[in-house]
Design goal:
Length: about 325
């Protein structure tokens, strides 16, 4: 294939030897149906990130309302400031459900017989690129969410106000958009430190459990292969220099971390065990060679959102690397 570049190197004998073209991969006819479906979801992703990045919250209005409970004008001002923000949070939550469906479609396409996962990634690079884009969006969203306490504060104030008014037999117009059931689901979503990653982890686990005829290795091999490919591209100068976009380095790092976390959630023994098909030492080393300000969030994701890091099967060396 024109966009498939074979990787040669003694240290890569146990690793899939191909380069995944994250910048230029285009769908073949066989990929088009799934690609179009996922593309419609990904088109929204940039707007969602931009909205989250500019999310300032209603902290000032909420503080004034709490400090002056008898001032109805301040209560109304805070409520009017919070409602459009909660509508925005609802859009983010609903997008996570569409992202979950898109991920499922990609997993079905990239693990279906008769091809092995590595053959799928080689043959269907446009779908692999979309899978990577979902992971990139997910880690970007969660990094922004984790550093913005206003999200939880605004939503908590909204729920408290609705509960108080319900006790007083008052129903506010905003409840038509975010009723109690929706508020409960949103609350569970935003209570997670990394809500989008949790959504994808749950979706991947569910995909494995529902497809009982599909060996779990087909899914985990798809993830470990992509982690390996990203590591190879990041640590090999000849392939790094093929990136035409300066953001592709960070894109690769985010994708690598994303598939490691999914692998760790889905695989029975996780990503850190000696039997794991992911070279965790190599992946962490690649991250640590980058400027700390660009990778600290990714290292934290490995520290705090994986399931098996603190298992007895994880070597002391790997734990030390992540300290």
């Amino acid at each position: 294939m024109g966009n498939l570049i074979k990787v040669l190197g003694k240290d890569l004998e146990n690793c899939p030897h191909f380069f995944l073209d994250f910048e230029n991969a285009q769908p073949t006819e066989a990929e088009t149906a799934v690609w179009n479906q996922v593309s419609a979801v990904l088109e929204e992703a940039h707007g969602i990130l931009a909205e989250l990045q500019s999310y300032n919250g209603a902290g000032q209005e909420i503080r004034e309302a709490i400090q002056n409970p008898g001032d109805l004008a301040l209560q109304e001002k805070a409520w009017n400031a919070v409602c459009p923000l909660v509508a925005k949070l609802k859009r983010f939550y609903e997008f996570s459900l569409r992202l979950e469906n898109a991920l499922r479609s990609l997993l079905e396409a990239l693990t279906s017989p008769p091809y092995a996962p590595m053959q799928h990634l080689e043959r269907e690079q446009a779908l692999a690129k979309q899978f990577a884009e979902i992971l990139h969006f997910t880690l970007s969203f969660d990094e922004l969410k984790m550093t913005n306490p206003a999200i939880q504060n605004d939503f908590s104030y909204y729920r408290r106000t609705i509960s108080r008014n319900r006790l007083n037999n008052q129903q506010l117009e905003a409840e038509n958009d975010v009723n109690n059931e929706m508020a409960n689901r949103m609350s569970l979503f935003y209570a997670e430190a990394t809500p989008m990653l949790k959504t994808l982890s749950n979706a991947t686990t569910k995909f494995v459990s529902e497809n009982k005829t599909l060996p779990i290795e087909d899914t985990t091999d798809c993830l470990s292969t992509m982690a390996c490919v990203c590591r190879v591209m990041l640590e090999t100068p000849e392939y790094r220099c093929r990136f035409t976009n300066t953001d592709t380095m960070l894109f690769c790092m985010r994708v690598m971390v994303g598939v490691i976390i999914l692998y760790d959630h889905v695989h029975p023994v996780g990503a850190f065990a000696k039997t794991s098909k992911i070279d965790m030492k190599g992946c962490i080393k690649v991250l640590k060679e980058q400027p700390s300000n660009s990778v600290e969030g990714l290292l934290n994701a490995l520290r705090y959102t994986t399931r098996h890091l603190n298992d007895d099967s994880t070597s002391k060396q790997i734990r030390a690397l992540l300290q």
